[in-house]
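Hey,

Quick one before I head out. I ran the complex with pyridoxal-5'-phosphate overnight. Inputs first:
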Amino acid sequence: MTLIPNQRHLFDIPDEVAYLNVATMGPLPLAAARAGQQGLARKLQPWTIPDADFFEDTRRLRPLLAELVGADEAGIAFVPSASYGLATAARNITLAKGQKILLLEDQFPSNVYTWRALARATGAVIETIGAAGNTSLSQALLQAITPDTGLVACAHVRWTDGARLDLVAIGARCREVGAALVLDLTQSCGAMSFDMRDVQPDFVVVAGYKWLLGPYALGFLYAAPHRRTGVPLEQNWINREGAADFSRLIDYTDAYAPGAERYDMGERSNFALLPAFHESVRQILDWGIDRVEATLAHRNRALAAELEGLGLPAMAETERGPHYLGALLPETAPADLTARLKAEKIYVSKRGNRLRITPHLFTSDEDVARFLAALKRHLG
Ligand SMILES: Cc1ncc(COP(=O)(O)O)c(C=O)c1O
């Protein structure tokens, strides 16, 4: 597969900035910022916004979001955050007292608190799974799924260290025992191939502001075909049958629009954010997720070898997301390491005892060289 050449010209990243922190927040491409600005400006003259446009941006974007994850368009709903999507999933999953909810050790908090609340409400019991000895995180989770498992909630890569989960095997095992599967793909969607048909989860949530390079406060929820008749978190007007006819809105109806659209958030027709998100997602699809993945894998393979040489081992490539490095810091590392790097305009993040390094297609060889040189100095 041909790798993608450097794409810095599509972003507003000065030469002296080494931004290696997409796991915290992806930068908007310039084209997305322009589309968002144009969308925001429409509100200066609201009389120029036709009623039909309340439906237009979501209609255009839904199939692109579906394409990102190999889903059908009817399974996609618009949500403002991963937490909102997880809350929607939790609202529609029935668990019995004593059934197990399996989570990963150090999982992202939104994907823990949601299930703690559901466990309290239902009497289900949370079990937290970690890697142990020679057993990888993925194997440990797979082994923990038993007939008393009611739900598995996890990611494709863990946000702290990039540990990768074999979602095809986990999906198959969940179906075997009749457990629901809820996935948070916020740290992988856009940079790692994923196909809904292979995994068959019940719900998937994605916040759009990291690897999809989208604006903040917009993401999507996927609901499997048998999960599309559930209860939305909000009762709003626009995801009802016939909502396009504004003169008939007070002919109230209990009938929702078809598919997962019933789960769309209120004020989904965000005239500023949707066009920006559209541009970001279109850009990712134009690059091709498999090519993004291969290009970032190539960059990170070399970077991981250098880090290993400096005494900061990341996980083996077979065990981690190819786009994601969580390098183990030596105990002697200065507590303010990320602040010191930031003072040199080098941006990475720290989660637990790991330095999280997440470059993208705008990352240059100079960025990486500067980062490694600074690291050597500060750890020296
Ligand atoms: C794995 C994961 N999920 C979700 C989020 C964001 O969650 P929310 O959209 O609920 O703020 C993050 C942000 O760091 C994350 O790392």
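The CA atoms of residues 304 and 314 lie 6 Å apart.

Talk tomorrow,
K.
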